Amino acid sequence: MKMCVASIGTILGIIMGLYLKGIAFFLLAISFIFLLLILLFISKKVSIKKNIALCLIFLVCILIFYLYVGFLESKYNKIYQYDKEELKLQAIVITDAEKQEYKDVYTIKVLNIEALSNSLQEENKQIEEKNKLIVRDDETSTKLLLYIKENSNSVNQLNYGDKIEITGIYEKPEVARNEGGFDYSMYLKGKEISGIITAKSVKVIEKNKINLIQKFIHDLKKNLIEKIREVLPEKASSLCIGLILGDKSYISEEVQNSFRQSNLSHMLAISGAHVSYILLGITSLFQLLRIHKRWSNILVILFLVFFMMLVGFTPSVTRACIMCILTLASNIFFTKPNVYTSLAISSIVILLINPYYILDIGFQLSFGGTIGIILLMNRKLEKQNIERENKSRANKLIEENKEWKSKILSKIFSCIKPIAQVSISANLIILPIMAYHFNTISLTFIISNLLASPILAVSLIGSMIFIFILLIFKPLAVIISFILSPILEILTFIAKITGKLPFSQILIPTPNMWQIFLYYLLLILYKFRNQISKLKNIIFILIIFLILAPYFIKFPMSNLSIKFIDVGQGDSTLIETPSRKTILIDGGGSEVGSFDVGEKTLLPFLLDNNIMQIDYMLFSHLDTDHCGRATYIVRKNKSKKHYNF
Q1: Which CATH number fits domain 561-644: 3.40.50.1820, 3.60.15.10, 2.60.120.510, 1.10.10.10?
Q2: What is the reported pLDDT for 135?
Q3: Topology at the third CATH level for domain 81-210
Q4: What residues contact residue 474 under an 8 Å CB cut-off, 6+ apart?
Q5: Which end of the chain is more exposed for a tag (fewer CB within 10 A), N or C?
């Protein structure tokens, strides 16, 4: 209970630190009183002293993480002062090159910074005189993206662990240019990156200036990827690397879109299912080797720590591994594991490492799905009910018709039902998250998960066996690849087919925060429906109506609304009349590059403003930068009429 309250306080403190600033303490007091009243109301078996202790824990966690976020924000602002300035710095390369259009991109860890412009030199001297510090005090935790353009006055290739000296122009990351748009600065903060430096010159000072453990893990991962790509075909190898090592950079955009459209994108992010299958393989191996159970648990914990380092401490992996480690630790010390406590501790640890993970979609989906399975599905009772239902159904079928078909149907039903229950429980919680970030909901997620889950299990287990044998005896791994490759291709095929089913992706406007709050309130009320009065049906109907009303009822506005949309090159303007008629003038675009402004900027902006259809579309002229990407809206049937003038 204490850890769950601490976790809620942690999340609330981070949200306050990120968004509420000045009014945070007012909301803090309101939240404190609200939680106190709730605890006093529902915790009848808990003493007043314990309720007060829980409230104090809640308050302390809010304050600590509110101040923590404020400290990190000030650290980033220190780096942002260098925006558009020429810098000279020393750093260590901590990633391999990522090939992008006309440039190579690296992530670097900064050791020291020197401003070359006169204005910043004077400012830094004043800071040094007053405080005896400049950005150098925070530089050991400062990361930057390094852009090295083609044909620049720099080295051709940098290696992981190189200590380098760079001269270049620093740029702070962009914030959202449109209301509700993509905030690149927050995205980079989730990766602990403070901005971008475009190199004018780069010089390698020293090689292999990196921690030996980090170097070993990097080389191992790189070697594994190379061997997998050498043995398996391209499509199968990219999927195998994504499933086991969590690296999706080799998976084509087309395949990733197929998994996204079929509501199977969670299968490409290593999470609880992946970790459970890995644990199954490791523990089975230890059992064959007849290792004592306690020592086996210790070795599994060490392996999970190593595995987190191998895949890069992504939130979903870290959550799953920490929960497994806590469960194994409880077995070692002969204590009873508590799934709620494990989930709360994992969230606090992850957010302590980086509070900005709270904005990470992977973090939200991983914890949301797990919470859904835990809260909406009582595993023990469900298992007992399933067994009873299966036995009774099987007995009836055998009595009515003693054919072999009845037994097969009973077994199929017993396998399908748990998968469907888990899928529904997880998706009920993550549905608002998907709607908020992707503006889509799916009514076919059960079909896609039922078809793909068994194949995913076989793919994961097969991939683990394949990689293990690949490290030991390559010729045998080549033979296994002929079996594994078709299985991986079947998984991709299922994602492609189910993504094209009707209602697999229903486009909806971005829900407001109050709608999301009401949705989760509805789930909570349903969970405790037996404790609610006889008016519960009326309450459910009222909440559902309030959630859906903005999508169907359009109230007239008092004023004409004109909004200018930042579409990069070109112009775009949205006009909304008092009678709620919508007019889009131009849509932006570019003659070069593959970025689709219509899909990535224009349509999300319309959905963020609760606009599903444009009544009139006007083009000032037919140049590409004014109408080239607005055609995406026409293709999506979001415009009734379009003219040029």
Answers
A1: 3.60.15.10
A2: 43
A3: OB fold (Dihydrolipoamide Acetyltransferase, E2P) (2.40.50)
A4: 227, 231
A5: C
* Residues sharing a CB contact under 8 Å with residue 460, sequence separation 6 or more, in sequence order: 243, 244, 273, 274, 277, 278
- State phi, psi for 159 to the nearest 5 degrees: -115, 155
Q: Which residues pair with 149 in a beta bridge?
A: 103
- What is the rounded CA–CA span in Å between residue 271 and residue 596? 31
Round to whole Å and give the CA distance between 120 and 114: 9
pLDDT at residue 387 is higher than 90? no
* Residue 438 binned pLDDT confidence (cut-offs 50, 70, 90): confident
Count of residues in the chain: 645
The partner residues of 614 in beta bridges, in order of sequence, read: 639
C-alpha distances out from residue 79 to 165, 196, 355, Å: 18, 11, 18
In the block, residue with structure tokens 């037994």: 407
Sequence ranges of the domains in the chain: 2-77, 81-210, 211-263+445-510, 377-441, 513-550, 561-644
Q: Please answer whether residues 493 and 250 qualify as being in contact, where contact means their C-beta atoms are separated by less than 8 angstroms.
A: no
Instruction: Collapse the DSSP code of 439 into the 3-class scheme (helix H, G, I; strand E, B; otherwise coil) and give the result.
Output: coil
- Summarised one tens digit per residue, pLDDT across range 583-594 is 888 876 665 555
- Looking at every residue in the chain, the average pLDDT score rounds to 80
Give the 3-state secondary structure percentages of the chain, helix then strand then coil, rounded to 5.
60, 15, 25
Beta strands 614-619; 163-171: pairing state: unpaired
- Per DSSP, the residues of 8-39 read HHHHHHHHIIIIIGGGHHHHHHHHHHHHHHHH
5, containing H or E segment = helix 2-15
Which residue from 348, 361, 364, 318 is spatially nearest to 65, judged by alpha carbons?
348
Q: Count other Cβ atoms within 10 Å, centred on residue 61.
A: 21
**Integer Cα distance of 477 and 467 in angstroms:** 8
- Residue with the bigger pLDDT between 324 and 412: it is 324
Rg value, the chain, Cα: 28
Q: What confidence category does residue 618 fall into, taking pLDDT thresholds of 50, 70 and 90? A: confident
As a whole number of angstroms, the distance between CA 305 and CA 285 comes to 18
b/e code 556-567 from CB counts within 10 Å (16+ = b): eeeeeeeeebeb
Give dist(CA 618, CA 574) in Å, integer.
10
**pLDDT classification of 154: cutoffs 50, 70, 90:** low
Residue range 463-494, pLDDT digits in tens: 988 998 998 888 999 999 999 999 999 999 99
Q: What mean pLDDT comes out for the span 206-211?
A: 87
Q: Which residues are CB-contacts of 611 (< 8 A; sequence separation ≥ 6)?
A: 509, 574, 576, 582
* Dihedrals phi, psi of 114, to nearest 5 degrees: -130, 125
CA distance 403 to 407: 8
Q: Which residues contact 464 (CB under 8 A, 6 or more apart)?
A: 244, 277, 278, 281
